[in-house]
Amino acid sequence: MNNDVIAAHTGFDTHPHKDMEIITYVLRGALTHDDSMSNKERLGRGAMQYLSAGTGISHSEKNEDDEEVHLIQTWILPSAKGKTP
Predict the structure, then answer these.
(1) How many domains does one find in the chain?
(2) Distance between CA 45 and CA 48 in Å, rounded?
(3) Model-level pTM greater than 0.70?
(4) Which residues contact 30 (CB under 8 A, 6 or more apart)?
């Protein structure tokens, strides 16, 4: 569980994830998500995003605005790879 505050015009450059689910909820400001599957979206206050990293995805999360963004992010790791409950 991450509780992040991202300053204006900063963020997390492109980085990979795999074998996990990521849920993001924006508390204040706006976050821009861009990924290797050609998805790009701006998440404003109250927005929630679900990202399934599966076999692998690269993405960036940036604050392109003049005010800081505050978000909560939950990372869920599977108990075993490739098994269905």
Answers:
(1) 1
(2) 9
(3) yes
(4) 42, 43, 44, 45, 63, 64, 65, 69
